[in-house]
Amino acid sequence: MRAKRCVRVCTRLILLLVVTVTALLAPPPPLFAAGSPVADVTVPAVGRTWPVGLRPRVVRGWEPPASVYGPGHRGVDLTAAPGTPVRAVAAGRVSFAGRVAGKGVVSVELTGTGDPPLRTTYEPVTATVEEGDEVGPGEVIGTVDATGSHCTAACVHWGLRRGETYLNPLALLPPWLLHRGPSRLLPVH
What we know:
This protein is α+β, with helices and mostly antiparallel strands. The chain is built from two helices and eleven strands. Helices cover 15% and strands 29% of the residues.
């Protein structure tokens, strides 16, 4: 009886080890959906900070549209309470700070990211910067508005474009900023 139990426990431990090693060695998920019109676009990891908080929860991820006018989500939504400071993720120049369709929007053209340059957008945001201002990574560019969010709870919509092409803004962040902490194994019962 003890031998059977020992075999079962050892089998479970080996299976858990195989699953864990497989997960650790698997390539990361693609930043772009298969067949996406922007799947071949390279985004340099120039970001140095999250737009809000230290590691905000992504409420809704990037869902690239299959066509220019197709459905999708052209950015990511990050949890953030009204009044939370919004920061530039990388160095750049403010290309727009104002209201669009009743929402506060700030756009920053990122320095040294090609032609046309990458441009990040943040909304709904009350701007503390003006068009033409130079900003550094982590510099406060505004605060989260209490109204204007398309999320059920307050959030910041963070977008990224090169010209007219929407890209995944999470691609701007280096892997060490995206990581949420150490992996943990579940106990074997």
